[in-house]
Sequence to fold (434 residues):
Amino acid sequence: MFGARCLLRPLRSCSSAPCPKHKPPAKLRVRDALRAQNTSGERVKVQGWIRSVRSQKEVLFLHVNDGSSLESLQVVADPSFDSRELAFGSSVEVQGQLVKSPSKGQNMELKAEKIEVVGNCDVKTFPIKYKERHPLEYLRRYPHLRCRTNVLGSILRVRSEATAAIHSFFKDNGFVHIHTPIITSNDCEGAGELFQVEPSSKMKVSEENFFNVPAFLTVSGQLHLEVMSGAFTQVFTFGPTFRAENSQSRRHLAEFYMVEAEISFVESLKDLMQVMEGLFKTTVMMVLSNCPEDVELCHKFIAPGQKDRLEHMLKNNFLIMSYTEAVEILKQASQNFTFTPEWGTDLHTEHEKYLVKHCGNIPVFVVNYPLVLKPFYMRDNEDGPQHTVAAVDLLVPGVGELFGGSLREERYHFLEQQLARLGLTEAYQWAKAK
Fold:
């Protein structure tokens, strides 16, 4: 569903005499206007919000931004256009000629012929102030306005570009995009605490379920994708997932977007690692290429050093080590860990970050985890006393685990053994009978 805001204008009727036809000005985004190469003097129309006003004796300067780029478009106008309504935060429509700018640091500017104020802004009461860097905690109080700031605007443009890159990568590599359900009855191997879904009118009647069974907001689309991979060899989903974990941290979000994929006829972990590395590098390259100003702002004010780190990762092939090798490296580390590394225990975030740093801040694939740490469906490596499964996690600098995956166990008798070991045989028989 698309929403739109418009300004209603009275219609003017023409007489029976022919009316001269004027070519309407071409509507341009600020991003496109700034990058324009042809300055033939064609009239254009730009709509957006005023970021600054500077009135001089002989000229009026406005900077207008529509959210399409970090940089604003400079509008040059006659001082007769100046009015109280042309203020920081006001929305305007400007028509005029796009010309080469004589000023350094900008390619084009708009010589205004007509400026129309679409929406006024009272700068005294407007909570976002011109040339003031507001703390993020302050901006949280104004969710309807914070997206107008440079920081939030840059983050959202980067996210949009990354989303497009992810879809582009999968499409170019022959994957079918699947919309997996957001409301589901499965909890996907107990991947996290669940939000239960019920109509508001039924919340007090716990015996009644809208779907006849308890339903939850999804924690993963994996089970649905596994079904789809039986008809399409390569599928993926990219949608919202929910975890009802009461923890206020960046790693425990109630709602987040997750990329999941399933591939049929995969014979080795190398096939999965190739997809993971390709997806990571394609997404990073597209963001760095298409959002350079936004990345630079994030690099300067939000996460210093990350841009250089990303470029370093793009230049190098990702490394591969086994879980056993990783544990040995951690045991020999001079660093004191909160959780003591031992074979057969999970790698914690502190371990993952150390391993990446140990490898020169190059992403690392850790493969072949102990069978006891992983779900029953991961393929048994049949490797003797250590007993590992064909699982892989991608660890990246500053984050730790970014991707996870495995080969699926296709051998029926191995699956039966695993279900028996975990005490799930009766549940499996019940589900099979259903």
In short: Residues 6-17 have pLDDT under 50 and may be disordered.
